[in-house]
Amino acid sequence: MTCSKIFSGDLPELTNEIIQYFRKDSSTLYSCILVNRLWCRLAIPILWEDPFSIPTQHYHCIKTYLCFLNEDDKAKFNEYGINDNLFVSNTLFNYPSFIKYLDASTIYNSIQNWIITLVDKCNHKLRNKLGNLVYRSLLELFIENEGYLYFLNVVLSTSYLHKYFDDNLDLILQNPNLTYNIRGLIFGNRFNSFRCVFQNTIPFLKFLYSNCNLISTFCFEFPEKLLTNNSLIENYLSQIIISQHNLKEISFGYFINLYNPFLSLKNSNCSNTLNTIIFNNIDFN
User: Fold this and answer.
1) Rounded CA separation 75/197 (Å)
2) Comparing C-alpha atoms, which of 134, 39, 153 is closest to residue 82?
3) What is the mean pLDDT of residues 73-102?
4) Residue 77: phi, psi to the nearest 5?
5) Residue 175 and residue 208 in contact, taking contact as beta carbons nearer than 8 Å
6) Residue 64 has pLDDT above 80, yes or no
């Protein structure tokens, strides 16, 4: 009797708890959306929390997202040979509002894979210009549709990732609601350019300690030579730590001077919540 009520939708709270168990099982969630309207309504938001990580969907979701653009924004794609016929015309859900996880590298790769299927004959410079347009359009859609993140991963490992981040950082800085609720943050630079570190990192770190104080897991990694004599990064990192109220795990990677960050751990709001400190490629000598 109970099973029949669950499948018929008579016990929505219990049904929701059951579907939550499938959060990491995308294939089962896809099956759930075929059961009935209730199961579909409960499963779709979970599937679209982190669509770029789903192997079978990672770049197909871009076409669905872009259908939410207004006509003027869609017209920007015409110069690249992308017309309105490529965008999904009818959608049942407000998919951009469901976003919860953003990984800059994964999104970049998804965008590049999507572009290759459409305009594989365009030159490299034009392809990167189009990629930047898609990247910015996605961020704008997440913001306009009131999406908010639980997890943000920004590891800048190539010059192209740096350019995407640099060109679109203004959207993040001007719209704090997108990142206000983040619980997990990975931020790092693996590209060999101090200029990129200084230009991109400082404004972002200032923004984080001013607007994000709910982080429970924080990973920060930069190559040693990029942090030499750069006390600004260390000071802002300390400010981020001090501003947190529920920090449980922190990870330092490729870090040169841990004195100030460690001192801030002792005096921070998270002194009663922190239970894990991880060191990755740290030279304690």
Assistant:
1) 34
2) 134
3) 83
4) -85, -10
5) no
6) yes
